[in-house]
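Obj: model holo form, ligand = adenosine-5'-diphosphate.
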Amino acid sequence: MGEPGIIKKLSEEVVNRIAAGEIVQRPSNALKELIENSLDAKSSSIVITVKAGGLKFLQIQDNGAGIRSEDLDIVCERFTTSKLTKYEDLKEICTYGFRGEALASISHIAHLTILTKTASAKCAYKASYENGKLKSPIKPCAGNNGTQITVEDLFYNVIARKKALRSPTEEYSHIMEVVGGYAIHNSHVGFTLKKFGENTDLKTPFKSTVIENVRIIHGNAIARELMEIELEEPTLKLSLRGCITNVNYSHKKGTMLLFINHRLVDSQSIRKAVDSVYSTYLPKNSHSFVYLSLELDPRNVDVNVHPTKHEVQFLYEEQIIEKIKSCIESKLLSCNSTRVMYTQA
Ligand code: ADP
Ligand code: MG
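Output (holo structure tokens):
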């Protein structure tokens, strides 16, 4: 029999790093949080620049409200937020994400720099962080209104994670997916994505539309076959809007963009349900393009099934999925019949 191990308490720094590594599993998870912060700050333009799939360098520049210089010393500590004050708010809002935890988490596993200016400040301020704390005094400097957040050397101190993410190309494709998704969902905001020192890969204009952005990001073959859907179900506290391809379009892979309460998420059960409706109309093994935005009572959504909060569960799932299915089905039927009449005419 071996000697029993000695139980020791982990240092706070190590605990925080482990927790952060669970929340941020890859660059695209961090980017999603940063995009949501820029959207929360009412930005109309968001520019993202990436090096090595975001592993070396991930920068997001917005033109939103900015951060007050007085707040810069605590902004990266855990549970610091400008978005809720009372516990009662938390019940409704906490389901969206990790209130006050995103910047803190990132600062535990990367070098994080904030350059920010509010409209009323005379100049911008720059601050760098490590493990939730300021690394050096805040510096006044030149800068535009809004916030620029730079994340460098992500996972530099989480060696196992760094080794697991070896392909910048794959990480970049996840980043494209996240930026593309948020650009479609927030079509009033202009999004730009580029690799450092290279041409722009994705650019949507300010005050665009969902369909126009699908055209820019996924091409005209999808955009021209899109139909809008809409549904209100007060009894289930469900409201749905979206764009789905008609039966003329099919693709061997297919795309499902799902937002629940404005967060990009995944739900295997919704995915399956949508596929099952289309399977009657599309050739075997082919799929549709579907963008769905669901708004549910936040109290009915459980985002805690996965640490990155990507996969969600919600109450009344069966009933809600039935409603989504019948909404899509009736839209497909209506377009199918017009197509038949058109060919007969
Ligand atoms: P949360 O978004 O849950 O409040 P974060 O750690 O993501 O937590 O951000 C902490 C705080 O930093 C926010 O509440 C907000 O006040 C400020 N902040 C972060 N990013 C931005 C941004 N791009 N523009 C303005 N304020 C920001
Ligand atoms: Mg946030």
